[in-house]
Design a protein that fits this description.
This protein is α+β, with helices and mostly antiparallel strands and 165 residues long. It contains four helices and six strands, in the order H-H-E-E-H-E-E-E-E-H. Pfam families: SnoaL_4 (PF13577).
Length: 165
């Protein structure tokens, strides 16, 4: 027979998983939409963001400065996170997810990159945050052709364009 205590534990686990998945989404939305409030809210005060083996940003100020540099370098960024798994252990948890990022350079060329995030999460005052995010297995592809903006999807396609795709 399921007790009220069992149900409460199961509900806490479900709410925790949802909160951790929300952190992964808020990371992408905060970065892509240049939302400093959302961006800062996902991190613990002493968080570390390890973007490469030789670049580790520690603390909210350093992490905010690092993303602001990215915002300056890339007029448009679009992250897509998938395969997010989490392991919960009381007030801490770990996670792993894959990411693909499209970023536009100042010269309108696009680059594609990505990798895998390994995360450490911590619950403080009932709120889950990222305590450490490490990028592993990063990849970058050569810049794509320049683009001045979105393609008109309603425009008719010429026969030569169809054969090129």
């Amino acid at each position: 027979m399921t007790t009220l205590q069992d149900l409460a534990a199961r509900l806490d686990r479900v709410e925790t998983e949802l909160a951790l998945h929300r952190l992964a989404h808020d990371y992408c939305v905060g970065a892509d939409h240049r939302d400093p409030v959302r961006w800062e809210a996902i991190w613990t005060a002493d968080a570390a963001w390890e973007t490469s083996s030789d670049q580790i940003f520690t603390g909210i100020e350093a992490i905010r400065a690092a993303v602001e540099q990215q915002w300056q370098a890339f007029p448009i960024m679009q992250h897509a996170t998938a395969n997010h798994t989490v392991e919960i252990d009381g007030a801490s948890a770990t996670g792993r997810s894959d990411v693909v990022v499209l970023a536009q350079l100042r010269n309108h060329r696009w680059i594609v990159g990505g990798g895998t995030y390994e995360d450490e999460y911590r619950r403080e005052g009932g709120i889950w945050r990222i305590a450490r995010r490490r990028v592993v297995h990063p990849f970058d592809l050569a810049p794509l052709a320049p683009s001045d903006g979105p393609v008109d999807v309603d425009a008719p396609v010429r026969a030569t364009e169809r054969s090129e795709s």
